[in-house]
């Protein structure tokens, strides 16, 4: 236990962050010009951190594998960003946001970090408005809000269904300003291959130019990893196909502990799998659950008729529909947290009530919302006796204004009009709550190596509430890391430029080249995707929405064997000395094959159900998650020791002084 020092400040919860900022050391502006920082990943966390650090005066180098920072996966976020500004006057506060986040994470997150997140959330919105982010506004001109799962207030700010894109453009414009000033050197189409440590401190990275194949050395006084999550270990997920764990896993192999790898979020509203040809899944924003009602047929014969194409959902009478979330969770209804909604959908489909050909889909229906909005619009337009067709048309216009791009996307993919026919949805892998272990300052167990956004584990516990990913990424980048990294860098004002012609850089580069040569040395029996798909099926079937001890042990053994076969028989065509996307994928899948085994090992050691980690052996008679606070109220932090089976578990005990531990209930 002693090896993990979370560095949580003392004092009352509401004062911790303010007192901490008052006590930390600073770097004066003249000295910042002599300090270099590397930021790996340029999504919301990395982009905001890079822009802010450069604005403060540090020399920043950014690295992303995309051709532009604006193509980071943050752009795919749809529904919104949380902040406790209480524009609605509905009882929201910093404490309420803090409480909802800890409860939503099933009491497996750090109080101090989560309260700080709530505390700085309002500043994020002001920052983004100042950057020109076009948040939706109400009739009076104030920023509009909508609800998300797991809360009883409206605190989610949004830009139609494109919130991530608009926020990323704000951060990207801030980055561009610093690039133009010469304070940011932007290395696009570069991938971090390894972390370089000198005297125990992170002092740079080895990167590969993905266009030329050149291996490069880059030094800095500190390294920030903001490279996102590892959901693509499942192959099929809502992540971009390029999203990977390489940066975080390279740091893990160098000594950064990896925390809670088994905490993965399954998002309840995704377009269902249509066949083996797919390489990714498409998310339908959780914001749709504000107005869409989720249901399946009440009778199996109706479900079978729908699956066989003999019955259309709009032909099913209201009394023959089971709005199962509203039935099971009357207080929250369709806005229960994601893990609860996902398991409920799986339960109904497993019981035989699924509505697509595979039997793995439920309906998300907007008919009631369309008519409700239509009646309101008719009345406010002076149409007192509008007929149903007029009301429906007006209602569709309102829904289009709120969710139009999402409906358009659904229709393009599924070839069904969601205004006329209910959407079909099913849970899919989305976000990863686990990541590199960090202390209160966002520093990993490697000095000078920081992790921000989804790449760290810190704020969401065992389940992330919707619209909190964007909040955490921007909080870390704009308002936390710029303070805490300065405290560390204040000791480097006399260090001078870090040279790259040292033995440590030489050794790290040699390891990278040797690894590439080993990947190329495979006998060429199978493609990289062959192994990735096999890994994904093991992960989904045995480490997915529910887990049990028998199948988790099977997953560990199967992944270990698959990894050995990968290194023996993978086929990587082309040359390392040029653009080679198969080589890129091979390096990433090699890391997934290690992470997947640690994931299963972590899930096997946690003999409880909490949030997104649902062990079948540990559930209530009603099928809800059954925590074991006496034995498992801790963060699992794994130390790399070679093979995943050799990894050593360290525990950070979670202490709750401001929130009472109790069983989550959304009923």
Could you explain how this protein is built, in words?
The structure is a single chain. By secondary structure, the protein is an alpha+beta fold. The protein has 18 helices and 19 strands. The chain has a five-stranded parallel β-sheet, sandwiched between helices. A five-stranded antiparallel β-sheet has the order 11-15-14-12-13. A hairpin with a 2-residue loop joins β6 and β7. α4 packs across α5. The longest helix is centred in the middle third of the chain and has 27 residues. It starts with 15 loop residues before the first helix and ends in a 14-residue tail after the last strand.
Tell me the layout of helices and strands.
Layout lengths: L15 H8 L5 H4 L3 E5 L3 H13 L2 E6 L16 E2 L11 H11 L6 H20 L25 E2 L5 H19 L2 E5 L1 E9 L2 E9 L5 E5 L2 E4 L20 H8 L4 E2 L4 E7 L22 E5 L2 H8 L13 E2 L1 H5 L9 H16 L8 E4 L1 H14 L7 H27 L8 E10 L2 E2 L12 E3 L17 H21 L13 H18 L7 H16 L5 H21 L11 H25 L23 H4 L1 E6 L8 E6 L14
Parallel strand pairs: 1-2, 1-9, 2-5, 9-17
Antiparallel strand pairs: 3-4, 6-7, 7-8, 10-16, 10-18, 11-15, 12-13, 12-14, 14-15, 18-19
Helix pairs in contact: 3-6, 3-13, 4-5, 5-13, 11-12, 15-16, 15-17, 16-17
């Amino acid at each position: 236990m002693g090896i993990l020092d979370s560095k949580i400040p003392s004092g009352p919860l509401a004062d911790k962050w303010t007192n901490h900022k008052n006590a930390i050391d600073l770097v004066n502006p003249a000295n910042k010009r002599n300090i270099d920082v590397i930021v790996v990943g340029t999504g919301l966390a990395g982009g905001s951190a890079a822009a802010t650090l450069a604005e403060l005066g540090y020399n920043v180098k950014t690295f992303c594998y995309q051709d532009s920072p604006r193509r980071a996966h943050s752009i795919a976020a749809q529904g919104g960003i949380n902040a406790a500004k209480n524009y609605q006057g509905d009882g929201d506060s910093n404490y309420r946001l803090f409480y909802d986040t800890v409860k939503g994470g099933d009491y497996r997150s750090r109080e101090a970090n989560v309260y700080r997140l709530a505390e700085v959330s309002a500043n994020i919105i002001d920052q983004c408005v100042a950057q020109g982010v076009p948040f939706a506004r109400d009739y009076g001109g104030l920023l509009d809000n909508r609800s998300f799962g797991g809360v009883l207030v409206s605190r989610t700010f949004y830009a139609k269904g494109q919130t991530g894109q608009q926020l990323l453009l704000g951060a990207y414009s801030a980055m561009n300003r610093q690039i133009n000033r010469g304070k940011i050197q932007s290395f696009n189409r570069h991938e971090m291959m390894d972390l370089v440590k000198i005297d125990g401190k992170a002092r740079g990275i080895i990167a590969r130019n993905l266009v030329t194949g050149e291996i490069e050395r880059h030094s800095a006084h500190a390294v920030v990893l903001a490279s996102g999550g590892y959901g693509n270990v499942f192959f099929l997920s809502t992540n971009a196909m390029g999203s990977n764990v390489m940066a975080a896993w390279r740091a893990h192999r160098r000594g950064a502990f990896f925390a809670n790898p088994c905490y993965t979020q399954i998002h309840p509203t995704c377009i269902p799998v249509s066949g083996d040809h797919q390489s990714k899944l498409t998310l339908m924003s959780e914001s749709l659950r504000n107005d869409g009602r989720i249901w399946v047929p009440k009778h199996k014969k109706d479900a079978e008729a729908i699956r066989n194409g003999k019955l259309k959902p709009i032909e099913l009478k209201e009394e023959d529909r089971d709005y199962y979330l509203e039935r099971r969770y009357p207080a929250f209804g369709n806005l229960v947290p994601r893990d609860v909604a996902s398991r409920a959908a799986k339960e109904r489909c497993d019981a035989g009530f699924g509505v697509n050909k595979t039997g793995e889909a439920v309906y998300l229906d907007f008919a009631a919302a369309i008519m409700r909005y239509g009646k309101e619009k008719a009345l406010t337009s002076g149409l007192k006796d509008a007929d149903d067709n007029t009301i429906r048309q007006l209602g569709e216009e309102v829904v289009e204004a709120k969710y139009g791009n999402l409906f358009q996307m659904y229709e393009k993919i599924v070839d069904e009009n969601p205004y006329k026919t209910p959407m079909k949805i099913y849970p899919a892998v989305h976000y990863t709550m686990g990541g590199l272990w960090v202390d209160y300052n966002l520093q990993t167990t490697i000095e000078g190596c920081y992790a921000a956004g989804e790449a760290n584990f810190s704020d969401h516990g065992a389940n992330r509430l919707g619209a909190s990913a964007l909040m955490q990424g921007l909080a870390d980048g704009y308002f936390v890391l710029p303070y805490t990294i300065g405290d560390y860098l204040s000791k480097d004002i006399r260090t001078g430029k870090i040279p790259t012609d040292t033995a440590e850089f030489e050794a790290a580069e040699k390891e990278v080249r040797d690894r590439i040569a080993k990947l190329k040395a495979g006998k060429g029996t199978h493609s990289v995707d062959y192994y990735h798909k096999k890994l994904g099926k093991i992960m989904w079937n045995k480490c997915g929405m529910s887990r049990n001890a028998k199948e988790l042990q099977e997953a560990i053994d199967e992944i270990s064997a698959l990894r050995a076969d990968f290194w023996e028989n993978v086929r990587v065509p082309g040359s390392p000395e040029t653009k080679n996307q198969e080589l890129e994928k091979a390096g990433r899948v090699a890391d997934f094959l290690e992470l997947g085994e640690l994931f299963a090992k972590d899930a096997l050691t946690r003999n409880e159900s909490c949030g997104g980690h649902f062990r079948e052996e540990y559930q209530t008679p009603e099928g809800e998650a059954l925590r074991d606070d006496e034995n498992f109220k801790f963060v699992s932090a794994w130390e790399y020791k070679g093979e995943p089976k050799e990894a050593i578990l360290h525990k950070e005990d979670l202490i709750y002084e401001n929130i009472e531990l109790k069983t989550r209930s959304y009923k």
